[in-house]
Amino acid sequence: MTYFNLICIIAVTIAILFFAAKKKGNIDIPKFIGTILSQLILSFLLISFIHFILKKDFDLLCVLSIYLSFAIWIVFYFNFIQNHTIDSIGEKKLLLFITPSIPILFFPGILLNNTVAVNLIRMAIMTSIGVLNNYIVYKYFYQNLSTNKLDKFPTIITIPEKSKTQSVLYEPQKNKRDLILNFLLIIMPIVMIFALIQSSKEVYFNVEDDRIYGYVELPADSNFEYTDEIVQKIESKLVANPNVKDVISQVEPSHAFLIINYHKSFFSSDSIIPSLNQSVGRQNPAFCYFTKESDLGRMKEVSLDIVGQSHSDLNKSVPKIANLITNLPGIHEVILNFKQPRNELQLDLNNRDPLLQNSEIGSFLRTVVQGSVISKYNENNNELDIRVRASKEFRDSEKQLNKFLIKNNSGEFSSIGSSFTQRETLSPIKFFRKNKRPNLSISVRTDSYNPNTLLKLVQNYSQTLLNNNERIELNHRIEKLSKSNTNFTVYIILILLTCFFFFIIYTESLKTSFIYFCSLLFFYCIFASIYLIIFKTYDIGFHIGSVIVLISLLLHILSNFPEIKRQNTIPININWDFYLVAIALFLPLLILSTPELNVFKKVFGLFMISLILSRFLLIHFNFRFANVFEKVLSTNNISKISGGKNVRR
C-alpha cells in the first residue's frame, strides 16, 4: 500500500509539472518531461543496481534519497545553471564539492545512534549519486537536444537583463542595523542550544512499519485460561472496529502481545490509536495500550522510581499512585514496570498424627488441587497426558480443603483440615533495589511535560499516597537523557563546523568563509529554534531535514553572495520558476502521503519552509573589523622583519 501510494504521488507530480509547463508556454514539453522521467528512472535503476550488488533491500530510504536528490538538484540548477552564475567547469567543480558533502554531514550522527547513522549515510550516498545522475542527464540529454545552441555556452551571458533584476544598494559602512545583527548572531545559537536541550529526543525511525502493537498486562497470578479469556474479549472488540483488518495475538500467562493490521486510507490519518482505545475501553484488571512504534519507540516514556522502606508497602502505594497519574491532564498511559505480587495461600502444617507424614500431606494436596500425571495415552502419533485431580466443585475456594479426607499409615481416614492452619499472603515475583533500598518503577507516556515538570507534578499530587520514608525520583534513563543532550549539542556543533570547513575549502579564503558561515549560522539557528520551540521534539524528520537545509543554504550562499561582493548590491528579485517547480515536486507528497510516509512529509515540509525563509533571513554580514585586523597584522610582521628599526614605506 505504501509503494502504491508513492506511485500515485509520483504520477500526480508529473501531471502537475506537465500542466505547469504547458501553461507557461515557452517550454519544450517533450524535452522537459522526458528529462525528468529520464532522471527519475535512471536514479531508480542506479540505486537498485547498487543495492543488488551490495545485497541490500530496496527500502523507503532509497525512495527518500531519490526525492532528496531532486531537492538538491533544483537548488543547484536554479542558482547556478539557469542564472549562469558560473561556467561549465565551475558547475562540475561545485557539483563534485557538494556531492561528498551530503554523506559527510550525516557522518556525525554516529554520536546519536549508530544504527540510524549507518542507514542515513547509505541514504546520503544514494542521494549524492542521484544528484550526479540528474546533472549528467540534464547536460547530455536536455542541452544536447536543445535547438538553442547558446545553451551550450552559458558563459557568453555576462550581464543579466535589468528588467528581470531589481537591486538595492549595499552599504558596507558599519551602522546600527549591523550592530543589531551582530548581537542577534551571538544570541541565536544560545537560544537554539537551549531549545535543543529542552526538546525530547526521538532519533529513530521505522518508515515501513504500518502495523500497530498492543500490549495486555494482567496481575502476576493470572493463569493462562483467564488471560486468554480476557484477550479474546479484547480481540472481539478490536475486530469489530471498522478500521481493523486483522489481529494477531501471542498469549502467555498474565501477558499478551497483539499485532493489529489496519485498513490504510489514501489520505493520512492519525486517529487509529484513539479509535482502538475507544473500542477496547477499560478491561479491569487487565491493562491494554497500543503504539505504532516498535520496542525502540517505547523509550519515549518518562520513567519514575518510587523508593521506600519495604516492598510490601510499595506494592500497595505504587498502583494507587499510577491510577492517580492516569487521570492527570496530558497523560496518555501509565505502565507498571514490575509484576505485582501473586496472591498466595500459605498452609502452615501442625500435624500431630504420628501415622501421617507431612510429605504425604503435601503430595496429597498437590494431587487433588493441581493434579498428577499418572499415565500417557498415544492417539494418531499424539501423546496425551492422563492427569488425575479432584473435581472442580472441590477446587473452587480454599474452604473446600477442609472437606478432603486423607488416609494414614493404619488405613484410617481423617480430615486434612486439622493438619494445618491457612493464611493468605503475597509472594513477590522480583525484588528491585536502588542504592540498597526497595524500589519500584513506573513509566509515564506523555507529550505535554518534560521529565522535571512531570516529576514535580507527580510529587505534588501523590503526597497523600506516599508512606513515611517513601519518595519519587527520576529513573536512571533521565541520566542517559542528559548525556544525550550533550551528544546532540556536540552533533550540532560538528555539522556547523563541517559547513565552515566546506566554505574554506571552496573559497580558499578564511575571511570570506567566515562571512558566509555567519550567514548560514544565523539562518539555521533561527530556523532550528522556531521548530524546536513549537514542536518541542528533535525527531528523525528534523534530523534529516536539517542536513538538507544546510546543503541548500550552502548553495544559496555560494550563488548569491559573490554578486553582493562584486556589485555592492543585494538582489531582491524572486525566481518564481524555482518556487513553482519546488511546489509541483513536493506538494503532492505533503498532501497525499499516508501515515507511513510521515518522515517524508516532515523532511520536505522543512525544506519548503526553509526555501521561503531564506528569502528573508539569509543576511550578508558586514565585518569591517577584519580589514583593520589584517592591517595590524601586516604592520606587526614588518616591524618584526626589520628588527625594530625604522623602515621607509
TrEMBL record:
Record-linked Gene3D superfamilies: Multidrug efflux transporter AcrB pore domain (3.30.70.1440), Multidrug efflux transporter AcrB TolC docking domain, DN and DC subdomains (3.30.2090.10), Multidrug efflux transporter AcrB transmembrane domain (1.20.1640.10)
GO MF entries: xenobiotic transmembrane transporter activity
GO CC term, one of those recorded: plasma membrane
UniProtKB keywords: Membrane, Transmembrane, Transmembrane helix
Transmembrane segments: 6-21, 33-54, 60-81, 93-111, 123-142, 179-197, 488-507, 514-534, 540-558, 570-591, 603-623
SUPFAM superfamilies: Multidrug efflux transporter AcrB pore domain, PN1, PN2, PC1 and PC2 subdomains, Multidrug efflux transporter AcrB TolC docking domain, DN and DC subdomains
InterPro entries, sorted: AcrB_DN_DC_subdom, Acrflvin-R
Pfam families: ACR_tran (PF00873)
Protein name, entry field: Acriflavine resistance protein
